[in-house]
UniProtKB/TrEMBL annotation, chain A:
Organism the protein comes from: Staphylotrichum longicolle
Stated name of the protein: DNA-directed RNA polymerase RBP11-like dimerisation domain-containing protein
Keywords annotated in UniProt: DNA-directed RNA polymerase, Nucleus, Transcription
GO cellular component, one term: RNA polymerase I complex
Assigned protein family: Belongs to the archaeal Rpo11/eukaryotic RPB11/RPC19 RNA polymerase subunit family.
Chief site of localization: nucleus
From TrEMBL, chain B:
Domain DNA-directed RNA polymerase RpoA/D/Rpb3-type positions: 27-271
Annotated spans, Disordered: 296-337
Pfam families in the record: RNA_pol_A_bac (PF01000), RNA_pol_L (PF01193)
An annotated Gene Ontology molecular function: protein dimerization activity
Gene3D superfamilies hit by this protein: DNA-directed RNA polymerase, insert domain, RNA polymerase, RBP11-like subunit
UniProt similarity note: Belongs to the archaeal Rpo3/eukaryotic RPB3 RNA polymerase subunit family.
Tree of life domain: Eukaryota
Protein name: DNA-directed RNA polymerase II subunit RPB3
CDD domains, alphabetized: RNAP_II_RPB3
Length: 159, 337
């Protein structure tokens, strides 16, 4: 628990103040905040048009504020443990990755966050992309192995 | 997987292995080994909740003089397994250009039954008949797995009672409603001897004597008497038992599950590649984080606790000097399980 220790040594108020003000893990994208203002001011027809556009451009991965090239947090919309845990596992396999973890900050929000910290030489975004591709490769292998095993089973069962 | 095999565990470097122990029209039992529990569980979850199938979603009731309420019958109809072969050629109703539903995004089924005799009448899924155009000739047909070919019992009618209704079956996934689940159940098991102690077995006097051994107990080496606990051990062999509800054959459920997972990944890779055009090269006007790289050096415009070296680890160096100590991530760290 280096984390708890680290905070205990901070002045107590400073630590808690910053935590209360800045916790950004699942705040709405700024564009959406603008949207609600627009809707209040504009007439209804225009607001409806905006809504349709918003729907089409829904962004499923977002970089959270406070990220740097080698240490970033990503927010995935409409993803869950299904992707999160497997992705975390495969990203951790990358030797250029120092740290990777995932969390679902709140059970009633369909959001999944992934934190990636890499060593010098690669970026968190590259590590994420590589993780996605590696997981795809793993799926390919398991899929092929399953079909192969199924055919082998059918052959032995019929003979 | 283009990693240096040296980095991986020996067993894992060989790659995943699939062994099938039973396969028929209802279930497939297989072992996935040399894989991680995270991936095995993803596969289980995706097979359970994210494979598209077809189920009755809208019911228009013209006549219902049975003892069951309209909504009760509608719910029962929704749960009837319909053949999902070729469902990939059906559109989601919300993605179709039509107004409401059409033959490209739905299958219409009719049910009309009246008890004219003096005995109670049973209405089965067989009495549900698909009508109109369909993507193919089997999609949306109720599945009969009983010997008589009747399908599930929907309701019973007393003499003189009648039901007449029209159903719209749509494509969907079980994450939205369980009626779209292709699997009746998915067995998932590992470590039959509980060597890893992931389970705390309840017992009266002796857990070993009171709990029946798993059917896979003979597949793995039982623990030696007095064997010390291995703290580094991780599960490696996973036993799946995929049982179909009838809409898709069991081996198709496995293949489709992997496919869904791959589509999910492909979609994200595509989005990431799209975002990179304007996102990776320092021009962050796109929908990415407004704080990321707005300054000339890529970090201007805000003060970040990460600024003094992004890859300096808070995990490597103990003590309170870590730059992460005062960040929101520091506080939220317990969430990153
Ligand atoms: Zn349509």
């Amino acid at each position: 628990m280096p984390r708890a220790k680290a905070r205990k040594e901070e002045p107590a108020e400073a630590g808690s103040d910053i935590v209360m003000d800045e916790a950004p893990t699942s705040h709405q994208p700024e564009s959406r905040d603008d949207m609600s203002v627009d809707q209040d001011e504009d007439d209804e027809v225009e607001a409806e048009d905006d809504e349709v556009e918003e729907e089409e451009e829904v962004q499923r991965v977002r970089l959270l504020p406070g990220s740097t090239p080698t240490a970033a947090s990503f927010e995935f919309l409409n993803e869950s443990h299904t992707l999160g845990n497997a992705l975390r596992y495969i990203i951790m396999k990358n030797p250029d990755v120092e740290f990777c973890a995932y969390a679902i900050p709140h059970p009633s929000e369909a959001k999944m966050n992934v934190r990636i910290q890499t060593f010098e030489g690669t970026t968190a975004i590259q590590a994420l992309e590589k993780g996605l591709r590696d997981l795809q490769d793993l799926c390919d292998v398991v899929s092929d192995k399953f079909i192969e095993a199924r055919e082998k089973f059918a052959a032995t069962a019929s003979s | 997987m283009d990693y240096d095999p040296m980095v991986m565990d020996d067993a894992e470097a060989l790659g995943p292995v699939v062994k099938i122990s039973q396969a028929d029209s209802v279930r497939v039992k297989y072992e996935l080994s040399n894989s991680d529990i995270a991936f095995a569980n993803s596969l289980r979850r995706v097979m359970l909740a994210e494979i598209p199938t077809i189920a009755i979603d809208l019911v228009e009731i013209e006549e219902n003089s049975s003892v069951l309420a309209d909504e009760f019958i509608a719910h029962r109809l929704g749960l009837i397994p319909l053949n999902a072969e070729g469902v990939e050629n059906l559109l989601y109703a919300r993605e179709c250009d039509c107004d409401g539903c059409c033959e490209h995004c739905s299958v219409k089924l009719m049910l009309h039954a009246k008890c004219t005799g003096d005995e109670n009448m049973h209405v089965f899924a067989r009495d549900l008949v698909p009508v109109g155009e369909r993507v193919n000739q089997v999609l949306g047909t109720p599945v009969f797995s009983d010997a008589e070919g009747l399908g599930p019992l929907i309701l019973k009618l007393r003499p003189g009672q009648e039901v007449k209704l029209e159903c719209i079956a749509k494509k969907g996934i079980a994450k939205e409603h369980a009626k779209w689940a292709p699997s009746a159940a998915i067995g998932f098991e590992y470590d039959p001897h509980n060597k890893l102690r992931h389970i705390d077995l309840w017992y009266e006097t002796d857990a070993k004597a009171e709990w029946p051994p798993s059917e896979y107990a003979s597949w793995e080496e039982p623990p030696q008497e007095g064997e010390p606990f291995d703290y580094d051990a991780v599960p490696n062999r996973f036993y799946f038992n995929v049982e179909s509800a009838g809409s898709l054959p069991p081996d198709t459920i496995v293949s489709e599950g992997i496919k869904v997972l791959q589509q999910k990944l492909a979609g994200l890779i595509h989005e990431l590649a799209e975002g990179e055009g304007d996102g990776m090269n320092g021009d962050y006007n796109g929908p990415r984080s407004p704080e990321y790289g707005t300054g000339a050096d890529g970090f201007g415009g805000y003060t970040t606790p990460f600024g003094n070296g992004g890859n300096q680890s808070s995990w490597g160096g103990a003590g309170g000097t870590t730059p992460y100590g005062t960040t929101p991530y520091g506080a939220g760290q317990s969430n990153w399980s």
